[in-house]
Amino acid sequence: MERNRRALAIGVLVGLLVVGGCGGVADPAPRMNIEVLGTRPHDPKAFTQGLEVDGDVLYEGTGLAGASSVRASRLTTGEELARTELPAPFFGEGITVTDATLWQLTWHDGVAIARDPATLAERGRVRYDGEGWGLCAGDGRLVMSDGTDRLTFRDPVTFEPTGSVELTSRNGARLNELECAADGSVYANDWPTDTILRIDPDSGAVLATADAAGLLPATARADADALNGIAQLPGTDRFLITGKNWPTMFEVRFTPA
């Protein structure tokens, strides 16, 4: 009961701040519900920074300096297919697969690493300016976040920037892990909150928001960090969601509130 009262109070406060800070105009984005369809175990030691599904392979990138990795496992069975560790001081961030390359970001290092998707062996490195947070691939381009409310587009082969867009609402959001959905939209975790944004990457409009605060039980929250993993299951309207050091990965569907 006490937790519910605190959540209600915080919700009212946030609502007042949004209205007051935007000249009386509230966030226009509609809400999405999160329908949980199933769960699967997730490594509670994995400081998840990127999640991607390509065919029957689930890729996961993890962070922390000296403890970052990229893992590939069979989606249906959980069998580990490959794993590679990043040497210190690299801090791994978002990952995505495009054509025959797995791209991996680093946080403060300004380095994108190109890998073989099957073996995860490094093929090359590209420098970029600023921080690396989330990454996804769609419509023949890469979409990258840097911890601000801006998305940067990059060439999937050279990693060179080709443009950018800022959110038209939810300004100040810290876009983190990204998923380029099949419908052309981009789903983004707003760090360090439990909010997921659905974004039109061409205009920067926030199309909808979802609150994942109740996804992980309170009993599992003590050792868990922020929500930070979202990947669409190919050919479906379902997504996998998890977080840093979460013991569970959720299979969900986003539905209109």
TrEMBL record:
- Domain of life per record: Bacteria
Q: Which Pfam families match?
A: Glu_cyclase_2
Cited PANTHER family: GLUTAMINYL-PEPTIDE CYCLOTRANSFERASE (PTHR31270)
Q: What is this protein called?
A: Glutaminyl-peptide cyclotransferase
What is the organism of origin for this protein?
Nocardia sputorum
